[in-house]
Amino acid sequence: MQATMYGMSCEIVNECASALSYNASALKHLQGVKSPNLCCALTILILGRLGTCYHNTYDWSLLLLITSGAIEMLLRAIREYEKYQGQISLSHPATMDDSALEGIDKAMLNILVKFPKLPISMDRLDELPPFRRQARRLVRSSKWLHIYEQAMMDSFDDTLALFIMHERRYKRERGLAVVKLWNCCSLAKARNT
After folding, report:
1. Which domains does the chain have, with CATH numbers?
2. What per-residue confidence (pLDDT) applies to 124?
3. DSSP letter string, 63-87
């Protein structure tokens, strides 16, 4: 727990590299948490923070690797949530802690809002429609989120449209520098494989 708090403190002061190591350490120590509700909630929260830290780490020489890492962390959080939803459906309703389940759903909502920005920033727009379908399915399966489905999906679409416009403007203003950087990163990645 202490590593998570240190990680949050580092994020607040924009020390994302330090926050990455603290959050990664916190993730490793989650195996000792006995409560499945708490373990899932913390896993989703920490994976979401790791994804955010990866995305906010601006080492341009590692841009492709960092963004891929952020996408992997957020996809892993989504898989954890889906796995936990499956466990919930098999559990006895009397053993469920409603406040913990609501907390998990809220943590997942945060991830659902953040994730689409990453493929957009990498010009991987083809990943968005499957993710949107997955987000809708997750929202519908949630006891708390399903009543906000239409509002959430509208917000999701609006956020994506604004972010896409922002990215296009940013890339247009930076001109060829971005294209050259992506080509350099792609070439470096191709050499490493």
Report:
1. 2-192 (1.25.40)
2. 74
3. HHHHHHHHHHHHHHHHHHHHHHHHH
